[in-house]
Amino acid sequence: MTGQLAFVESPVQLLNVLEWAHTRAPGTGIGAAPGTGAPATDTDTAPGTGAPATGAPAAGKPAPEAPAPVTAPGTTPAPLTVVVLSPTDPMSRGQLRRMAQLARDEGLTVHWQEARGGRGALVRTLRRLAGPLRSAERVIIGDPFSRYVQLLLTLFAPRHLTVVDDGTATMEFAAQLGRGERLVRWHRKGSLGPRELVLAPVTTLARRRLAPARGRTVEIFTSLPVEAPAGVEVTENSYAWTRARFGPPLLTGGADLVGTSLVETGVVDADHYTRVVGELARTHGATRYFAHRRESAEKLHRIAVETGLQVVRPELPLELIARRGPVGRTIVSFPSTVVHTLPLALAGTGVKVAVCDIAPEWLRATASPRAQGFLSGVTGTAAHEVDRLTARRTPAVDRLEFG
To answer: Most CB atoms closer than 10 Å: which of 13, 299, 337, 397?
Structure first.
């Protein structure tokens, strides 16, 4: 493993590494015929148990031929290797295994690393990755807030660093880097707990390694509206690989709803969330609810029982599921990355994306003081093609109306 090294911990991160490789395509194999990717070894990618996707939309056929990338004359591209730092939750593991196979089909080398596989996993991972990290020309990461990635960066300083999207955290990372603040996820409370105090030196050093400096360049590859911090290059992610590889989708009548993990992260009250999901379904004629991979089984069961929606656990990131189809003519989401990514992935298909604001009264007492402003910013910066819905309480009839 030499050349360019990507560390991914979620399916969306791996999707966006593929998108990045498509824009840099020299030497990455992106655009090669499916099935020509490097095979996995038993050691690196021993089969694991992924979560089954129940009720997932049928897969569409890939585009007959993805446009071949252009290699600049006289350049010698460095190979790209993807290291999956495997998470523990079954849904993420299942989606990641399917994304890993897509990456191999596109010609990338993918190594599966059980980075959280019990006692000694951290030491084994560091020992295995030490050599490749030292020799890597470029390191690509998807989550600068990840403690695992931060630890790797403190031990091995990359010469060139690229950060790809992994949800709305990219927006907060760019803002915090620009302001010179310590890295804290937007939905976390500001005070430092015992664990954060112990890891504070790691976070501080990692933040310096994530900033441009003499001998180190930093790039943010994103589909989100971010203001480039000083010295950081921002490259647009237009989802060109997704559009070239899949679709266009078959459109169904009505709407699809997109779930969120805001309840699981302690931001939104579960009762408010379930009630609004039901109102949105009735207002827009939705029949399906695409679950976020981190949503709990208990919450999803409640949504299915109380709203009558068919709960779908997607096999792949929503951008790919929607692009393959079938998909509703309207997709309704709460504030999340998809209000920025879906209009790009579905450009030219006729699908309309709508986003519903999070009202202040839905927030839990445990929510970070920054939560409301951050979520409003996600909605407010959505593409102009996205419809904005505002839920308002009508006390006389105890229901919600959307305008």
So the answer is: 13
Question: Which residue matches tokens 């990455």?
Answer: 28
Written as tens digits, the pLDDT of the chain (403 aa) is 458 999 999 999 999 999 999 998 644 456 443 333 333 333 343 333 233 333 333 333 333 333 333 334 344 457 899 999 998 888 899 999 999 999 999 999 999 988 887 778 888 888 888 888 888 899 999 988 888 888 888 888 889 999 998 877 888 888 888 888 777 765 455 555 565 555 667 777 778 888 899 989 999 999 998 888 899 999 999 999 999 999 899 999 889 999 999 899 888 999 999 999 999 999 999 999 999 988 999 999 999 999 999 999 999 999 999 999 999 999 999 888 898 999 999 999 999 999 988 888 888 887 777 666 667 767 667 666 678 776 554 443 344 445 4
State which H helix or E strand residue 289 sits in.
strand 286-290
Cα–Cα distance between 335 and 324 in angstroms, integer? 23
DSSP codes of every residue in 96-156 = HHHHHHHHHHTT-EEEEE-TTSSTTHHHHHHHHHHHHHHHEEEEEES-TT-HHHHHHHHHS
Contacts of 259 (CB under 8 A, 6+ apart): 289, 290, 291, 292, 295, 300, 303
The CA distance from 99 to 318, in Å, is 12
Q: Which amino acid belongs to residue 239?
A: Y
Q: At what angle do helices 270-284 and 297-307 cross, to 10 degrees?
A: 40
